[in-house]
Structures are given as structure tokens and as C-alpha cells.
Design a protein that fits this description.
By secondary structure, this protein is α/β, with parallel strands linked by helices. It has a domain of about 220 residues: Cobalamin-binding domain (Rossmann fold, 3-Layer(aba) Sandwich). Helix content is about 35%, strand content about 15%. It has 21 helices and 17 strands. The strands form 5 sheets. It has a 6-stranded mixed sheet with strand order 2-1-3-4-5-6. The chain has a 4-stranded parallel sheet with strand order 14-15-16-17, with helices on one face. α3 crosses α6 and α11 packs parallel to α13. The longest helix has 18 residues. The chain is globular and about 75 Å long. The N and C termini lie far apart (about 55 Å). The model has no long low-confidence stretch (mean pLDDT about 90).
Length: about 600
């Protein structure tokens, strides 16, 4: 594998693109804390792509960590890539400007590796869009030796078969240390005169957290998988997730990039914990991101100080799958408050669980933003919470919110999920009743109702979870649930409660795509080539394109989404890390 020469497009971008787009700050790079290396001194060049718009991707903590990790290696250069918005894509097509990186304005197709952050089931058309804009063939079997290795990582790597035909390899699990290992190995392999295929074979044999789809074949029998096997000797058939053992010594993005335009999140983001001690039966992350590891309070404070010095951001976000389960939360909030309160820097907490610790939290968090408290309740009835393994009692929930109101919180955001296994109409009505009662609880404190925002999402069976075998409810069922909630709100006169419903059509698609096998690639390619772009954006999403794609490929969208898997069949994701199948089945049967 020869050292590639990379074409720099800076002059072209400056003269042919930036003057003609609506938001040039998306495309200019050069932000505070970006890392730009001399390509001539680097043996491996990696383009890191978040397949969505700049303002979304630049806020993504995982991408920031991998960017910092790879650039910590002296002879590796990592640069960022985001999807240009539609106006820019049109200009780039007309003027034949290929996709480029922000730091060096370097042509993406000239890099050694193009790595994608894959965060949700609707990201796949974004990946194809990026490959197309870069001038890279969509299918891996159509790419010759001179194209980059296409790598996928983050959550969707654990259920990547729907898009396996488009990738050379996937990194399963947590990437910061694994990406460095992989980069160093590729550099060593490049010293030898070997083909891309031989490199992929060597990588697959070296790392059990790397999955190379082209080295495996499936046989099908109807909608089921008949067999799954390697086509080269010595390859594993079950992969493990890479994980970081010690968060205190792991690499962090302590100099986050400061964007020129407003991003989705402009804050210092610090993981306090990785993994989750809870085992919600619907949550892929809680089952795939084990074991639970904690970051020490002193290290958190040091990271916060360094990041504040590097950015000036006025909010610190304490992130994890369940921050309320972090055992040193009181100590962390106290130390951050002591240092940052004089600097007018606030603390932001993600969605929290309700337990005895949350009852104490508002007392501690006088520097937490008082705009609202966010709690993932998931189900309104205790019976249904037991089924989904979400151990919340109404007693603790009411006690926690009463204390929050006493400490000055005026509004609460609650997350619920509808369509869960075992759900009844009474469970649905209970959502409205619970929200109304929680709003009225504030009257005990100050005589006024609280403002309750309730976000209703629709149950999507997730891979690597006990509920992964379950069928999704029909679209008609979800629409009936929505009608029941609106009707019950009107009956109770609950004007203080505002319900926001996730797009039912997208949830159906997420179920259809997320648990699919490799044959779904035909649907993804068809829908992309016929115009699907930015499927997570309401102004761009077009369900008709997806329905047409499923029909063209001989599939029924709703039947695929509502499929129930047999306990003894080969699952399209069971080889891709995560817990053992038998372990999850025991949870489901329980």
C-alpha cells in the first residue's frame, strides 16, 4: 500500500463554494482547538465523518473523543467531515467539488481511512450521501485499492448488517483505545506490499472487536437466516465489544472545538460513568456498554477546569447512561459548584432516574440550570415498569419532584414510551393522569401548577436486548395511543401538561431497519439513489420514498417492522458483540 498524495481544495472551496451557501460557517473549519497536522509527517490519515449537518455532529462527544485520541498519536492525522446541507450539496455537484475535511480542506477520497460515527437507525442514508459526495463507490466490492478503508463505529456497529455491504470493517464497542490500536496496526501493515483484502484479513484475525463483513457469508431460507460462516479459515464467528477499563486514565476531549455557529450543545461534556447498573429490557446501551466504570471526582474537576480554560463554555454537562447512579454525584456537584459558581458556569444534568439520591439532588444542585428537571419515567404504572425492569416507585417520584419544587424548579420534562410489551389502555391513560398529578404537586409548595412537558416515544425493539425478539406494535396502534392521550388530557383539563410525540413513521422505520439482515442494503441504496437525505430532519424526511424502496425490493415495510423473531433462529445481530443470546433469553422469559 503506497503513501497517498492528498489533494487540498482550499482555494476551490474559498472561491467556488463559500460565497454561494447560506451558512458558510458550516464549511470553513479553523475553529478554536481544531487539530491540524502536517500530512507529510503522518503515516496514516483518517477522516472522521459524522453523517449529519455540522451543528449536530460537532456536538457529539464520541466523535470528539476519537478525534482527540487519534491525534494523540504522533504519526496519525485525524480530520473532521460533516454532511454539507442541501444547498451546498447542489453547488458541489454542479461545480464538481468533492467532499473535503474541515481542517485542511483535503479531499476525503484521498485519505487512508474514512471512519463513520453511527448513532441511530436512520443514519445509513447519510453514510451513502457522504460516500457519494466524496466520489467513493457505495458498495465495498466496487472499491479498488486506491479508495479509503471505510470503517463504522458507535452504537449501530452492534447491529450493522443492514449496511454491511457498504463498509470494509466495523469497530464494535468503545473506540478511543481500540482506534489507536487499529491505527498503529494499519501503519505496520502498510509497510508491506499487501492488498486491501489481505490487510482486512490480517485485521480481522488480529482484533476480536473488528468485524469485516466481506469475509463472512449468509445463507437464507425465506425471511430467516439459515447459516452464517467465515469464508477464510481462522476467523471468529462471535465478536466482542472493545471497552476502556479505566476512565481516569483514558483519553478525553479536554480541549473541545468551539464552533463558529450555534451548535445543538455548546457545553463542556464530561462522562462521569460508562455503562449502566440498570438493566432496562428495552435499552441496547445498558446491555452492550458493560462493565460499569466510574470516573473519580478529582479527575472530573480537572477535566472541567481544562475544558473551561480552552473554551469558555458556561455549562458543564455531567453525562452517562444514568447519572443518578453515579456514586459520587454529591461530591462532584459540590466541588464543581465551589470552583465554577464564581465564574457563572452552571451544571447540566441529563435525564435522571428516580430514587433516594434524586430526592437529595435539588438540594445539591443550586448551580444546576433551573430551566427544568428531566426524568426518564418510561412507563406510568408500576406494573409496566416491572415488566421493562425500570425500578421506579410513584412514592419516590412524587417525593423527588416535591423536593425539586421546593428548591425552585418550575418545570419538569418526563420521557415515556408507548407500545411496550404488556401495555394496556389503562397504562396509556395513566400517563396523562400521572403528569397532571405531578403538575398539581407544586401547589403544595407555592400554590402554583408546575409546567410538565411529556415526550412520548414509540417502542422500537432493539438488538442485544431481551425485547429484541418482540414484535413492534402496528402504526395504527400507535396512532390510537396518541388519540387516547390527547382525549384524556382534554377530559382532565390538563392544560399545564404539554405532550410531544415522536414521529410514528420514523419509529416504524427504525424497527424495520434496525433488526434487518444484509439484504436490507438494497433498500438503503435504492432509497438514497431516489432522493432520501437527512432523514432525521422533519423538513427532509419522506416516508413515501422509503415505502417505494421496500416495495421495489419485494418487502413490506410494516410487516418487517412488526416481525417477531423465534427464540431458536439465527439473529442478524447475534455475532456482533453484546451479551450472549441465552443470557438475554433468560431475561425475556423472566
Amino acid at each position: 500500500m503506497e503513501m497517498k498524495k492528498i489533494e487540498i481544495l482550499e482555494d476551490t472551496v474559498a472561491s467556488e463554494l463559500l460565497p454561494f451557501v447560506r451558512t458558510p460557517s458550516r464549511y470553513i473549519g479553523g475553529e478554536v482547538n481544531q487539530i491540524k497536522k502536517d500530512f507529510g509527517l503522518c503515516k496514516l490519515k483518517v477522516a472522521l465523518c459524522f453523517p449529519d449537518a455540522y451543528e449536530i455532529g460537532t456536538s457529539h462527544t464520541g466523535l470528539a473523543i476519537v478525534y482527540a485520541a487519534l491525534n494523540s498519536v504522533a504519526n496519525v492525522a485525524a480530520e473532521r467531515v460533516f454532511l454539507p446541507w442541501l444547498d451546498a450539496q447542489k453547488i458541489m455537484a454542479e461545480k464538481k467539488i468533492p467532499l473535503y475535511t474541515l481542517e485542511s480542506k483535503a479531499k476525503v477520497a484521498d485519505f487512508d481511512v474514512l471512519g463513520f460515527s453511527l448513532t441511530n437507525e436512520m443514519c445509513w442514508t447519510g453514510v451513502l450521501n457522504a460516500l457519494d459526495l466524496a466520489g467513493i463507490p457505495l458498495r465495498s466490492n466496487a472499491r479498488g485499492e486506491n479508495y479509503p478503508l471505510i470503517l463504522g463505529g458507535a452504537g449501530m456497529a452492534n447491529c450493522c448488517e443492514p449496511a454491511a455491504e457498504f463498509f470494509d470493517m466495523f469497530l464494535l464497542g468503545q473506540a478511543e483505545e481500540a482506534a489507536i490500536e487499529l491505527a498503529k496496526f494499519i501503519i505496520e501493515q502498510k509497510k508491506n506490499d499487501i492488498s486491501k483484502r489481505q490487510l482486512l484479513i490480517n485485521v480481522a484475525k488480529k482484533f476480536n472487536f473488528i468485524y469485516v463483513p466481506s469475509l463472512y457469508k449468509f445463507e437464507y431460507e425465506g425471511e430467516k437466516i439459515k447459516s452464517f460462516a467465515p469464508i477464510e479459515p481462522g476467523l471468529p464467528t462471535k465478536f466482542t465489544d472493545a471497552f476502556v477499563d479505566d476512565l481516569d486514565t483514558s483519553l478525553v476531549a479536554d480541549k473541545p472545538i468551539v464552533p463558529f455557529m450555534e451548535a445543538v450543545h455548546e457545553r463542556i461534556s464530561i462522562e462521569v460513568m460508562r455503562g449502566c447498573p440498570g438493566r432496562c429490557n428495552f435499552c441496547q446501551a445498558s446491555f452492550c456498554r458493560r462493565p460499569v466504570r466510574f470516573r473519580s471526582p478529582q479527575i472530573i474537576l480537572e477535566i472541567a477546569k481544562a475544558a473551561y480554560k480552552a473554551t469558555g463554555f458556561d455549562t458543564i454537562g455531567l453525562l452517562s447512561l444514568s447519572t443518578a447512579d453515579y456514586p459520587y454525584l454529591e461530591e462532584v456537584i459540590t466541588s464543581l459548584k465551589e470552583y465554577f459558581e464564581p465564574l457563572h458556569v452552571g451544571i447540566s444534568l441529563p435525564s435522571l432516574r428516580v430514587d433516594t439520591q434524586l430526592k437529595l439532588l435539588p438540594k445539591l444542585a443550586t448551580s444546576v440550570r433551573k430551566s427544568g428537571l428531566t426524568i426518564a419515567v418510561e412507563a406510568a404504572s408500576e406494573r409496566l415498569r416491572q415488566i421493562i425492569n425500570k425500578p421506579i416507585t410513584n412514592e419516590n417520584l412524587f417525593a423527588a419532584l416535591e423536593e425539586a419544587y421546593k428548591q425552585g424548579f418550575e418545570s419538569v420534562k418526563l420521557y415515556f414510551m408507548a407500545g411496550l410489551p404488556g401495555e394496556t389502555e389503562d397504562d396509556i391513560k395513566e400517563i396523562v393522569k400521572l403528569c397532571y398529578n405531578l403538575a398539581g404537586l407544586r401547589r403544595k409548595v407555592c400554590g402554583k401548577l408546575a409546567s410538565i412537558s411529556a415526550a412520548i416515544s414509540w417502542f422500537v425493539p432493539k438488538t442485544h436486548t431481551p425485547f429484541g425478539w418482540n414484535a413492534q406494535q402496528s402504526e395504527a396502534y400507535f396512532r390510537n395511543v396518541k388519540d387516547i392521550i390527547i382525549s384524556e388530557k382534554s377530559r382532565l383539563g390538563a392544560r399545564c401538561v404539554n405532550f410531544k410525540f415522536h414521529d410514528i413513521r420514523r419509529s416504524v422505520l427504525e424497527s424495520a431497519i434496525g433488526r434487518a439482515d444484509r439484504r436490507m442494503a438494497d433498500v438503503l441504496e435504492y432509497v438514497y439513489k431516489n432522493g432520501a437525505r437527512f432523514d432525521l430532519w422533519d423538513e427532509c424526511f419522506n416516508l413515501n420514498l422509503w415505502q417505494e424502496a421496500f416495495t421495489h425490493c419485494g418487502l413490506d415495510l410494516h410487516k418487517t417492522a412488526e416481525r417477531k423473531f423465534d427464540y431458536d433462529e439465527i439473529l442478524p445481530w447475534q455475532h456482533l458483540g453484546g451479551p450472549d443470546k441465552d443470557y438475554l433469553l433468560k431475561h425475556l422469559q423472566k
